[in-house]
Amino acid sequence: MAIIPTDKLQAGMVLAADVQDLNGRMLLKLGTIVEEKHLKVLRTWGVMSVDIENNEDIEDSLPKKEIGDLSPEIIKAIDCEIEKRFKGVDVRHPVMTALVDVVKKDLIEQHLTELPAR
Asked: What share of the chain is helix, strand, coil (3-state, %, to 5)?
């Protein structure tokens, strides 16, 4: 299982948890195989992330550069940004831990895509 941003979600992935909108309305059920029409529903209702069964498809879509390619300064800047965004929040709570992981992964991906090709 992996929580991923909906912009990384692809048709064919399987949901590992129910997906609800901000008001708790059920949008998609656990076990749903994502189709193009589901992607549109999630965008329409502003769903930011979902839990999927496996993350093999995600790994294929990530930049082929590695976190080790980032300079220590960039890694420190990412950590500072995470601290700033989650100041005053109990990041030990499982939901917040998952959210921090998603945000950190997104920040790392952003910096990796800015690196020149190897």
From this structure: 45, 15, 40
What are the boundaries of each domain within the chain?
A: 2-59, 63-114
pLDDT digits (tens, 9 = 90+) for 40-67: 999 888 888 888 886 554 455 544 566 7
> Is residue 57 packed enough to be buried (19+ CB in 10 Å), middle (13-18) or exposed (0-12)?
middle
Architecture of domain 2-59: Alpha-Beta Complex (3.90)
The model's pTM: 0.48
CB atoms within 10 A of CB 30: 12
Match 């965008």 to its residue by tokens. 43
